[in-house]
Amino acid sequence: MDNSTQVVCISIFLNILNVHVNRIPVSGIIKSTEYIPGRFLLASLNKSSELNERQRLVIESKLDSHSIIIDQIAGLVARRIVCNAYEGQNVNSGERFGIIRFGSRVNLYLPLSVHVSAFIGQTVIGGETILAYLQEAPKQLTVKSI
After folding, report:
1. What is the pLDDT of residues 3-34, one digit of tens each?
2. Which of 35, 59, 95, 111 lies in the 20 to 30 Å Cα band around 131?
3. CA nearest to 129, candidates 108, 100, 113, 101
4. Whether the model pTM is above 0.70
5. Number of domains in the chain
6. Within-domain flag for 143
7. Inside any domain, residue 146
């Protein structure tokens, strides 16, 4: 996805009492990882998504080759992002890939074709709560004459 691609963003704020383990949202392959330096604003602020220090993963889904982007975003207190995923790695949905220390945020960028099942203000549980369903890409059907 480039900057002109429209996406759905699901933003998960983690307060200091939450579990800060981050999990892979979809099975696929890690296409890229990128460290983005930045500030340490309160992670609950929307502008922290663009201004704060973050680690970005791009995963190509095994289901339909959609690109899924995950940003681990540091907060005012959370100044340490740990990301154990690496480019070229095959990953499975639900696997742990990292942790952000204390009050932080995770943004998940999904294709517009998804069906979002989470709602604003919902408390989610890592590895259990389904946030969205990917719509499988239409398959091309070829009919041969006999």
Report:
1. 567 899 999 998 888 888 999 999 999 999 99
2. 35
3. 108
4. yes
5. 1
6. no
7. no
